[in-house]
Amino acid sequence: MLEPAAASLEPTTAQLADYAPSGRFDALPADMETLFMGLRMQRRQVKARQYLFRTGQPRHALFLIHAGSFKTCVLSEDGREKITGFRMRGDLLGIDALDIPSYACDAIALDYGEVWELPTAQMRLQFPEFQERLTAELAREIRRDWSWMLALGTLTAEQRVISFLLDLAQRLQERGFSARDLVLRMTRAELGNFLALQLETVTRALSHLHAQGLIGVACREIRIDDPVALRGRLACDA
Amino acid sequence: MLEPAAASLEPTTAQLADYAPSGRFDALPADMETLFMGLRMQRRQVKARQYLFRTGQPRHALFLIHAGSFKTCVLSEDGREKITGFRMRGDLLGIDALDIPSYACDAIALDYGEVWELPTAQMRLQFPEFQERLTAELAREIRRDWSWMLALGTLTAEQRVISFLLDLAQRLQERGFSARDLVLRMTRAELGNFLALQLETVTRALSHLHAQGLIGVACREIRIDDPVALRGRLACDA
DNA sequence: CGTTGGCTTGATACGCCTCAATGCTAGTGG
DNA sequence: CCACTAGCATTGAGGCGTATCAAGCCAACG
User: Fold this and answer.
1) B143 and A79 in contact by Cβ < 8 A?
2) What is the pLDDT of residues A5-49, one digit of tens each?
3) Partner-chain contact B96 A134, CB within 8 Å
4) Alpha-carbon torsion B86, B92, B94, B98, what sign?
5) Could you check: is the Cβ of residue B207 within 7 Å of any atom of nucleic acid strand D?
6) Looking at residue B98, what DSSP letter applies?
7) How far apart are CA A87 and CA A73, in angstroms?
8) Which end of chain A, N or C, is less surrounded by CB atoms within 10 Å?
9) pLDDT tens digits along A168-180
10) Nucleotides on strand D with an atom closer than 7 A to protein CB?
11) In angstroms, rounded to a whole number, what is the distance separating the alpha carbons of residues A132 and A217?
């Protein structure tokens, strides 16, 4: 367990709030849940490590994450794997295959998960704005992807890890959790895969930031001690 | 000038056709032009190096590329730049900002360019399937991005260059050009930026492939001599 | 109590970056 | 016509950052 953060530096969340690799593009996160609250929907629970769907399976529905965390990944024919994102409550799974009959990625629960199954055909009829919501969600995903492409292409290993932590902190905060105390739902290997790093490099980056007093590290639990300093390290010439 | 390819290895285009970083996901490319043929549309021409639009500008329209090549790029606050894609005839520019009032990237002509301006509001009324076409285009872009994220995260410098060449060859072929003789519309620096490599590394990779007789290189003109061997190099353990 | 999976740390190797020099081509102006 | 310049491509030498390999630690679990 990590002891709670020293209350020395208070105004850190404000700094965090306007940061994210995707921050400069995005409008506020959509609240799909309230939109569909009245609708009777199929719910589905998945256990840790379980596949929600796999690449190539017939796509019969979209899924709205209600609880838990998921990763989505793509595979090449020769076995190379790449995690394309870590998804959490409010995110939609499966939209990347909206125009084709089968899923285009794997969706795997990191811990446990509960999803709501959206029957797309029915929704289109019932909610005229549904299709527009989908385009919005897709466009947002593109901008997120571009931001990460920018980060992976231009930042060092340590900066990538910082980017990830700050991005995660912001997403947690948007969902009502602390932006300071994070619990990573993925292994070091998965994190490294997403950031295009080896797991040892991720560990070393975290250890280094810890040694400098910027974060607290206890395995999956991360405490962000100095968001301002972290943000400062993201500049090109730092 | 490059002399034409030796006619020794004939059946290469078939191999090429089913390859692309995005190949395993995508359906055939959309023919937007014929769809909108009857419509009276604003056309716009841009010269080399000219911006079609910039990040943050009010988004009043989408653009369909009719001729020429464009690059789209994103910038971070501290000046880091990343080219998110090279676009050509039939591609849509601006869709990544469909849900927000201003453009989310820069679009810059590489040589010259002619685009058709699509008034989105009008199109939605006139073509009921237009919104669905947009979602399809967005989903395809996401899958393309994921494929490149996979490539950049798991391939060596030389493999990335090969991937790019094969992808470009396929896109040219889809548009009725030769899949064997390519003309790069971008500088080595731009190519390196897209592939997360330095321009010298791109040059070295091209020179190396040339020295092995797999391609012909004369500055911007590339001839693909041995697509099969190139494809073979993309395997994980090659 | 052994086994397994995940995390950390160190030593070494290698691929790509960085810096520097050169060549080439096109455009410009004397 | 020929300097002169600017932009782009190529090539080499050396250094750095991350990958790779190896070992040890710890908690969870059968």
Assistant:
1) no
2) 433 323 333 333 333 333 333 333 356 777 676 667 899 999 999
3) no
4) negative
5) yes
6) T
7) 11
8) N
9) 999 999 999 999 9
10) 8-13, 17-22
11) 41
